[in-house]
Amino acid sequence: AIKQVVEEELGPLDELFEEFSESACGAASIGQAHVAKLRTTGETVVVKVQYPSAARIFLADAQCLRTLISLANPEALPAFEEFEKQLALELDYRAELANLTAIFDAIMPTFADRVTVPRAHSTLSTGRVLTLEYLPGPKLEGEMRRQMAELGMRVDESESMRDWIQRLEAQTTQPATEADDDEREPWRAWLGRVGARVVGIDAALWVVGKVLATGGAAGGAGGLRNQEELRTCLHSLVEVHGFEIFVHGLFNADPHPGNLIAMGDGKVGLIDYGQCKRLEEGPRRAIAELMVKVADDAPHAEVAAAFRRVGV
Known about the structure:
Helices cover 52% and strands 14% of the residues. It has 312 residues and is α+β, with helices and mostly antiparallel strands. The strands form three sheets. Strands 1, 2, 3, 4 and 6 form a five-stranded antiparallel sheet that branches. Helix 5 packs across helix 10, helix 8 (187-199) runs antiparallel to helix 9 and helix 11 (281-295) runs antiparallel to helix 12.
C-alpha cells in the first residue's frame, strides 16, 4: 500500500529509486518513512509517505469529536477548531515542504556548524509524499539513554525521560549502601548511580561527566562520543529553537526527542516540521519581555503587566 501511494504520486518506483527499503525507518499516526537511494544521483534520501486512509480516518474522527464537544462542552469548540486546523495541515506534506524550506534558509547560514536541517527534494514531493535528505545517526533520546546507562542511570524503554528524572530525584532521599551494588558493576556506573542518590542528579551528572571526560564513553558511528557532546547538543537545541521563535518567527510547534538526530561531534539533526506556528514581531517581543521579567525576578506588578501584554 505504501509503494502504491508513492507510485500514484510520483510515478514508477523503479524509475525513481535504485533502492527503496521494505521496512520503515520511522512511523507516526498518519504516515511512515523509508530510506531510499535516488536512481539519478545515488543520494540516500528519506521518503515520507502518508497512509492511504489517513485523511479519511482523520476527517471521520474529527467530525465525531466535534459533535461530542458541541454537546458536552460547547465552550471548548474554539480550542478544538485550532487543534483540528493544525492537524489538518499535517495531512498536506506540501505545507511541511514549505516549512522545511523556510527553516533551512533561516537556520543553516548561522547554525550549520551545530545543527542540520534536511534539504527537501521538491520535485519528488507532493501532498502525500515528501522526499528529504537522509541524516545519519540515532535518535537523540536513544543516545541520552545510552549516556545515562554509562553513568549507571538506566532508563527503562517504557519510561519517559521526565518520569525517569522524577523517579531518580525521589531516590535522593534514600541512603546509598554497598549492599545495593552488583560486585560486577563497572566503576563508572557505580559512581553515577551512587552519586545521583547521594548528591542529586544535577551534581552527579556534572561530577561523573568530568570523570568520563578523562576516559571518554565511546559512542557508536553517528552518535555522541561523550557527555560534552551531549551537553553541546542540548545547548544548541535551546539556542536554535529560541532563534526560530524570537528572531525568525516560524518555529517547530511539536519539538520532541523523536524529531532529533544525534549526528556526532555535538551536531544534531532537526527533522519533522509538519507542525509549525508563526509569530509576528509584536507577540514575539511581548513573550520575550515576559520571560526576561520572570527570569530577573521582577516585581509582581511588572510581571503581571507583561502577562497582560502577552494576552494571558
